[in-house]
Structure formats: C-alpha cells, structure tokens
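Appendix B, Record 12. Input sequence as logged:
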Amino acid sequence: MKTFNKLVRDHIPEIIRKNWEIPEIMIASEEEYSQRLMEKLEEEVHEFFATPNTEEMADILEVLHALCNLKGFSWEQVEMMRQKKSLERGAFEKRIILKSTKKNWGE
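Logged structural output:
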C-alpha cells in the first residue's frame, strides 16, 4: 500500500482504477480544501524550482485557478489587479535587485 494523503486532481481516482489499483479517497471540507490547496501550491512551486518547465507552471496555474474559485475571485479580477500593479509599480522585466536604502538627508 502507498500512502499519499494529499489533494489530487479530479480524474486521479479513475486513472488509479484503470491501473488495477483501488484508491482510498475522502472529500475535503471547505476549510480543509483551502488548507490543502495552499499545501498543493507550495508543492507545485517546489516542483517548478526543481524542474522549471511548462508542465510544472501549468500545475501552479491550475492550483491558482482553484484558489480563485474557492475565494470567489474571478481570473479576470486577478489579471486586472496584476495589470494595475504592473502599471503603478512595474513588472519584473528590468531584473532590478534592491540591495538597500538609506535616508537622503540632503533634501
């Protein structure tokens, strides 16, 4: 027996059954689902760090979509906020590293 105890995609139990195994599953409460999504996001980000490719990035986006749905945010709202912040504060295209700040007492 293999133990996983983690949130999985909706079709995983069917895929396991097709491989002649019996999945033991449960349905998370809303509170547990929220917590498990946060854990899944962390897991997927770590996987992306280890193997930065489009598949891992897609997994991160899938979790973000699920979190948006759970929290009542539309993807459009999130994208609009991203664009607003990009206009106001910039994006990350210039590769700027802020090393420190100090007071400018000359003003």
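The mean pLDDT is 96.
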